[in-house]
Amino acid sequence: MRASELLRTKAINADHVAHGSGLRRILGPLDLTLLGIGAVIGAGIFVLTGVAAATKAGPAIVLSYVVAGFACAFAAMAYAELAAAIGGCGSAYGYTYAGMGELIAWVIGWDLILEYSVAVSAVAIGWSGYANTALEAVGLGLPPELLRGPLEGGLVNLPAFVIVLVLGLLLAVGVRESARVNAAMVFIKLLAITVFVVIASSHVEPANWTPFMPFGWGGMMGGAALVIFAYLGFDAVSTAAEEARNPQRDLPIGILASLAVCTLLYILVAGLLTGVAHYSTLNVSDPVAEVILRLGYPWGAGLVAAGAIAGLTTVMLAMYYGLTRVFLAIARDGLLPPLFARIDRRTQTPLTVILATGFAMAFIAGFTPIGAVAKLVNLGTLAAFFLVSVGVLVLRRRHPDLPRPFRIPFSPLFPLLGAFFCLILAVSLPWQTWAAFGVWLAIGLVIYFVYSRHHSALAVNPESLGNDSLRSQAS
């Protein structure tokens, strides 16, 4: 085994040449922006803002969101450049394969599988709690045995199990239908946020903003480190490259517009929340709904709860979608069995991948205490962000003439800043998270050296997807 085999790279436009338009190109810039908003804004805006204000930053949580959004913007611009220039549904996996080689691409692809699947399973458990609260409000609450898995003293987390399967069926029907449901859910949660803004804006007490930075500069930065995870998810937009009508133009719009909208909403909600209530009272499980109740608007609190449920639903849908597209891209390259590379002729969706991953995630959500490893989502996402930021510099050096419809400005400064922020945040995660990630990585390396390396399309037919044969077409 030679090092060159592990670092062999795929042609920039290999996916376009080899796979054509197997997926249906129907998503426009608005669809992609809504996909990004759906992935980013979940229950975090209704919960994390209050908790971070109470325990980390105080009213300066507004600045925490500015810093976090600024940090994420570097990674978002890197994604925008590579998504427009390279495309493909593999996201960071595909970009790394073209720039850094097969082994590194496999590692990040294996990491993305973990990131998206754990995210869907963990969010499904959170969704279950919100959904059961809504059922209890109408006298239809489920018994405890159907809200916990057997390892937690119950039988199955039934709502979590069911919602994953329902979303799987939706994705199996087609991307157009999934986009419509996502748009409807995004509308509900944006409506809930709008109602909060309208109500809260007339009850602001400026005295609540004093002192503005009670925990000092360190507290504000600690708040930024906490709330930056409320931004994670916009990278799912890049997995829609093969279903975008004009990916070179629309993917950068979807990535950057969704991040900008979410940043503005986070800042607005944070400012009003700390203006209506003293920051010290916001360390509760549902601070936004609690504040609305204190102001005497029970119907508004109900709508906020509905917005939280809708928010969690869109997060699951976007992450599930991203998982299936990354899985598809890896299987196309031969690193996973070809069974997962099939596209259903009728729905033009990767039906096998959707069903297989759906049943796996439903089982995890329904029968295991997934919360213990939920922080792996953070580490996996930061690893992807780091490699994409570095990948911009690598590809600019290796392929300087590659057409780039969008270029990240102030290179190499901005890509380096993106990599730096991701590295700092990743190092700040607990060692238990790194240990669990190491176990998952070890499993992935075993699979790669036992199966993937030998079945890779570049190993079976080196000229099929290699840069030597297609580089001239890419530029």
- The proportion of strand residues reads under 5%
Low-confidence stretches: 468-475
- What is the tally of beta strands? 0
Structural domains: how many: 1
Please give the alpha-carbon distance between the first and last residues: 31 Å
How many helices? The count is 20
If you average the pLDDT, what whole number results? 87
* Helicity level: 55-70%
Name of the CATH class: Mainly Alpha
The appropriate CATH architecture is Up-down Bundle
Report the CATH topology name.
Answer: Amino acid/polyamine transporter I
The backbone outline, from C-alpha atoms, is globular
* CATH homologous superfamily label: Amino acid/polyamine transporter I
Radius of gyration equals 22 Å
Main sheet?
none
Report on this structure.
The protein has 475 residues and is mainly α. The protein has one domain: Amino acid/polyamine transporter I (Up-down Bundle), CATH 1.20.1740. The chain contains 20 helices and no strands. α3 packs across α9. The protein is globular, with a radius of gyration of 22 Å. The two termini are 31 Å apart. The C terminus is likely disordered.
